[in-house]
Amino acid sequence: MGFPNKKQLEKVRARLEKAEGTLMLEPDATPLERLRWDICQKFVQYKAEHHMTQEELAKHLGVDKAKISKILHHRIEGFSTDRLMKLYQGLKPRMKITVG
After folding, report:
1. How many CB atoms lie within 10 A of CB 23?
2. Integer Cα distance of 25 and 29 in angstroms
3. Quick check: 72 and 40 in contact, CB under 8 A?
4. What is the pLDDT of residues 30-53, one digit of tens each?
5. CA dist., res. 14 & res. 84, Å (int)
6. DSSP of 66-97
7. How many helices (H) and strands (E) are present in the chain, helices listed first?
8. Does residue 79 surpass a pLDDT of 90?
9. Quick one: DSSP state of residue 30?
């Protein structure tokens, strides 16, 4: 397999420009932003530990795959903290919340 030609590279660049990666936590994040980021990380960990696909995780929680994708990539502007916690409770019914 050789190096992609100009047309192939342009096609890849166009796709990458539309792609949304995982958001990282800002260094000056508020405690609430840190909590919400941590909850998303719990979903990522659960998915990895249980060797699940996004689709399997979505089905398990009874939500569509797009919502799970947003959570796994920390793109949760449209989710309340309460909603995130209720969804996570679907994975860990006996979860305990501690404030430290």
Report:
1. 14
2. 7
3. yes
4. 999 999 999 999 999 999 999 999
5. 32
6. HHHHHHHTT--TTS-HHHHHHHHHTT-TT---
7. 5, 0
8. yes
9. -
Q: How far is CA 16 from CA 1, 19, 39, in A?
A: 21, 5, 27
Distance between terminal CA atoms of the chain? 53
User: For all residues of the chain together, what is the average pLDDT?
Assistant: 90
pTM above 0.85, yes or no: no
CATH code matching the domain that covers 29-100, chosen among 1.10.260, 2.40.128, 3.30.429, 3.30.70 = 1.10.260
Nearest to 60 by CA among 91, 33, 95: 91
Residue length, the chain?
100
pLDDT bin (cut points 50, 70, 90) of residue 12 is confident
| Sequence ranges of the domains in the chain | 29-100
Question: Tokens 């096609």 sit at which residue?
Answer: 11
